[in-house]
Prior knowledge:
Blueprint: E1 16-20, H1 25-36, E2 40-45, H2 48-57, E3 61-64, H3 70-84, E4 89-92, E5 98-99, H4 107-134, E6 138-142, H5 155-175, E7 181-187, H6 193-199, H7 204-209, H8 221-234, E8 238-241, H9 244-248, H10 255-277, E9 281-282, H11 284-292
Parallel strand pairs: 1-2, 1-4, 2-3, 4-6, 6-7, 7-8
Antiparallel strand pairs: 5-9
Amino acid sequence: MTSQPEEVTVDVAGKVVLITGAARGIGAEVARRLAAKGAKLALVGLEGDQLRQVAEQCDGKAWEADVTDWEALETAVNGVVDHYGGIDVVVANAGIAATGFVRSMDPTAFERVIEVNLLGVWRTVRTCLPHIIAGRGYCLVVSSLAAIVHIPGNAAYSAAKAGCEAFADSLRAEVRHLGVDVGVAYFSWISTDMVDSADEHPVFGPLRTAMPGLAGKKYPVSTVGKAVVRAITRRSKAVHVPGWVGGLKVFRAFTPRVVDLQAAKSVPAADHEMAINDLSGLVGPGGAAARKN
């Protein structure tokens, strides 16, 4: 029998890792775990006081910037390179969510989700890419289970995250010959301020928590932190939390039918309530920060 080659891992000690959306949630958790392994952290995002607090915990530095603002991003990335000398890894994590059905949703909230979650990823990656190429580094784009399963009340988020997946897949093929690896992260419902705030919504909350079986379960942010750090050390093509999300990708052609059947029972009343009560909008602290910009 031939032995299987051992998987190559990269020591992150001394590596410069830029993380967007690092003021709280997944970004902050990943930053703390990477710092514990000796990485040099460059944290980019809004909520400046919160962001700087996380940076202090990581012995890193914070750059307050809106990922949809080219000039602010370029200033931040240039600052990171001036301070650390380069960028080895970028984690395009910044994201917000909004509740609402398409026919009654606040257009500004819908478009802000697309701007942050998709265009913010593109702008982050494009701005960092020359430095990632120079160091033959790694790029991790945070997508979501929402790229695979498109539930009602989540159209903006699903559209943006599906776009992130497609963007990263194309990027991977484009930069492989330059020594750069690209990964996509797919997470189910994670116990972050964003999801917890959405659960408090009078319409979307009951819809989400009523999802059957594992589909409605929330998972601890620590699980994501461990998985992302492992993906960075392995320069993984994909990371899934929980693991069953990866298996679901195989059956994605069938997911719209399952969603349609479930939605037939729950959507009519929810759609009516959402429309007559004007309940759409950005959720959580991250949404509030994005709304100000």
